[in-house]
Every structure is written in C-alpha cells, then in structure tokens.
C-alpha cells in the first residue's frame, strides 16, 4: 500500500511547507461528492492522528486516513502547470470511471 509523489509534486509541497513555516506534510483524502461518487481532497497535514497511515516519498510525509486509502491505494500525485493554471493531479489505478468534467471518480 502506498501513495507516491512525482518530483514536481514533492517540490511544490516542500516549497509551500517552507513558506508556511508550519505543517508536517501533505494530507490526501477523498470525499463523497460529484456525479461519479468521490472527489480528492488535498490539504496540509497539521497533525497525525493515531489511525492515520503515513508514507514518506521524496522527503515529504503523505498522511491518509485508512478509509480513503482503500480508494486511492497506489495513486501517484503530480503537480501540473498548464499556462496560468496549476493544480495537483492524481493517477489512481483503482478508478473504474470518471465524470465528464473530471472532478469526481468511481472505484
């Protein structure tokens, strides 16, 4: 079981954490929403709970609650810049379908 980061994602997270002077790493999760069922949630990890699963990749801690991990195990998190737009993107091998707008997924 693992969540991995591309070099671009790890660089972005490290830079943001350095600028904030707070945070332990990246918290990745899912929420039930959208037309396909689930959407990714990404935030700074300010704490690590007893039941959290923690991975470290490229010097960045990735914190996930175990329920979300069942849906996103094996996912690679990337950070993509396209013109003026920039965002984290996810390559989740568990996805069975996505909505047309790409905002939610089904497993």
Write the layout of secondary structure elements.
Elements: E1 4-5, H1 7-20, E2 25-33, E3 37-45, E4 53-57, E5 60-64, H2 66-72, E6 76-82, E7 85-91, E8 97-98, E9 105-106
Features of this protein?
Hypothetical Protein Aq_1857, Chain: A, alpha/beta, 3-stranded mixed beta sheet, 4-stranded mixed beta sheet, 107 residues, 2 helices
Tell me what you see in this structure.
The chain is an alpha/beta fold. The two termini are about 15 Å apart. The strands form three sheets. Strands 3-2-5-4 form a four-stranded mixed beta sheet. The mean pLDDT is about 85. Strand 4 (about 55) and strand 5 form a beta hairpin. It has a single domain (about 5-100), classed as Sandwich (Hypothetical Protein Aq_1857, Chain: A). It has helices at about 5-20, 65-70; strands at about 5, 25-35, 35-45, 55, 60-65, 75-80, 85-90, 95-100, 105. The protein is built from two helices and nine strands, in the order E-H-E-E-E-E-H-E-E-E-E.
In order across it, which strands form the biggest sheet?
A: 3-2-5-4
Q: Could you estimate the helical fraction of the residues in percent?
A: 10-25%
Strand content: 35-45%
The span between the termini is 16 Å
- Catalogue the unreliable spans: none
In short:
The protein is of the alpha/beta class and 107 residues long.
């Amino acid at each position: 079981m693992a969540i991995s980061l591309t070099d671009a994602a790890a660089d972005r997270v490290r830079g943001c954490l350095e600028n904030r002077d707070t945070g332990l790493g990246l918290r990745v999760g899912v929420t039930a929403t959208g037309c396909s069922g689930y959407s990714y949630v990404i935030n700074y990890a300010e704490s690590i709970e007893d039941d959290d699963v923690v991975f470290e990749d490229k010097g960045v801690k990735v914190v996930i609650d175990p329920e979300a991990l069942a849906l996103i195990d094996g996912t690679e998190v990337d950070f993509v810049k396209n013109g003026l737009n920039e965002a984290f993107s996810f390559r989740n091998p568990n996805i069975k379908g996505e909505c047309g707008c790409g905002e939610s997924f089904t497993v």
